[in-house]
Amino acid sequence: MTAHVGGDVAEGFGHVVDAFRRNFDRRGDVGAALAVFRDGAPLVDLWGGLRDPARGLPWKRNTLVPVFSATRGVAALVMATLRSRGLLDWDAPVAAYWPEFADGGKGAVTVRQLMNHQAGLAGHWPVWKPGTRHGYRSTRLGLCQNELARRVDPRGRTIGRILAEDIAGPMGLSVYIGLPAEVPMDRVAVLGRLPVRDALRQLPGVPWRLAVGLLVRRGPVRSLTGPRLGAAERFSRREVLTPEAPSSNGVAEARGLARLYCAAAVGSPELPIDAGTLAELAAPTDAAARTDLLLKAKAACSYGFSRPTRAHPFGSPGMRSFGSPGLGGAFAFADPDARVGYAWTPNRLGVRLRDDPREVAVRRAVYRALG
Q1: What is the Cα–Cα distance from 59 to 65, expressed in whole angstroms?
Q2: Is the Cβ–Cβ distance between 68 and 328 less than 8 Å?
Q3: Is residue 129 within 8 Å of 144, Cβ to Cβ?
Q4: Which of 213-221's residues contact partners 24+ apart within 8 Å by CB, and which partners?
Q5: Which residue segments constitute the domains of the chain, with CATH numbers given?
Q6: How far apart are CA 260 and CA 171, in angstroms?
Q7: 288: CB partners within 8 A, 6+ apart
Q8: Whole-angstrom Cα distance, residue 163 to residue 26?
Q9: DSSP character string of 64-121
């Protein structure tokens, strides 16, 4: 039975609806939302399927979804507001703001190295010389960012509070790091896994060395393991979504993420980030990238964002896009060249860390329409 799809698209984006529907018909989707904004106006605002398959509850316009590591990009935008206000210097030692961080040989780690996954903190101390290598650190980045933000913000606020008070609240966005008590859990989509057949189809996109490392739990790759990978369904529970984990437990509407990234793409005055800081975020990176020692694959990142590479491009050809994928398939990013913010959020989780086939299908349809 074909899933019900609601929402609207701009003229010329009809085949985006077709691609969105095919994910339900052919790729095992249960519920999902897709949003694209350009110059502050919606081009695509779609939702469909079931937010709670066990109870047969349909996805609604205001359904929220846990987005896992896609939270990381939202947190990075908050950190950019602190940079924009002159409260944070990318090249200053983290310990200059947070003296206790220096323990364990971390005194020379700069804010830039921390944000770029170059600090070597796969454990509680550097496992390589900071700045010389690159390794994704999952939840640890968010925890470090949160304490750093609290130390530099004049009011001692956390990332979640700054997001709520300075960005999401004033812009009217349903994007949260730390789910508020007043948001009912019935609005949050219930997560589930892809059927085995569909999950196996995604395995060719998972680096084999990463898969082996996660199974044997040896070396720095251990920092990627934990409840997030073993029991993602827990992220449908309030006690997991209420604490702030700025790299892993954000909850959002696709519409809110797309509007947020669109504001970053065009330099909207609604977003308290100055033009100079936004130019830093969008500066092209080395398209060849480097091998991530934990993900066991080529990757590029800067200032807390994932960046496009030749092997995994996203956004316009200028390679200036920035955003973050999340465990299970969610992906949101800003494309300054197209002046676009994009977000796709599912509740049936895939196995790839990026380029989920369902997400790639709708993204390609969007960019065909954009021309």
Answers
A1: 10
A2: yes
A3: no
A4: 213/296, 220/122, 220/123, 220/127, 220/135, 220/293, 220/294, 221/122, 221/294, 221/296
A5: 5-370 (3.40.710.10)
A6: 8
A7: 298, 309, 310
A8: 37
A9: BEE-GGGHHHHHHHHHHHHHHTTS--TTSBGGGT-GGGGTTTTTT-BHHHHHTT-S--
What type of residue is 177? I
d(CA 207, CA 61): 36
Task: Say how many C-beta atoms besides its own lie within 10 A of residue 252's C-beta.
Answer: 27
* Structure-token pair, residue 241: 């979504």
Classify residue 322 as exposed, middle or buried by CB count within 10 Å of its CB (0-12, 13-18, 19+). buried
Task: Give 361's DSSP letter.
Answer: H
Q: Is 363 left (phi over 0), alpha (psi -120 to 50) or beta?
A: alpha
CA 312 – CA 288 distance, rounded (Å): 10
DSSP of 178-230: S--TTS-GGGBPPPEEPPHHHHHHHGGGS-HHHHHHHHHT-GGGGGG-SHHHH
CA distance 69 to 90: 22
- Its pTM stands at 0.89
Per-residue pLDDT of the chain (371 residues; tens, 9 = 90+): 578 999 999 999 999 999 999 999 998 899 999 999 999 999 999 999 999 999 999 999 999 999 999 999 999 999 999 999 999 999 999 999 999 999 988 999 999 999 988 766 766 676 667 766 555 666 778 899 999 999 999 999 999 999 999 999 999 999 999 999 999 999 999 998 766 555 555 455 555 444 444 444 455 544 444 434 445 667 888 999 999 999 889 999 999 999 999 999 999 999 999 999 999 999 987 654 566 655 556 778 899 999 998 888 999 999 999 999 998 899 999 999 999 999 999 999 887 778 899 999 999 999 999 99
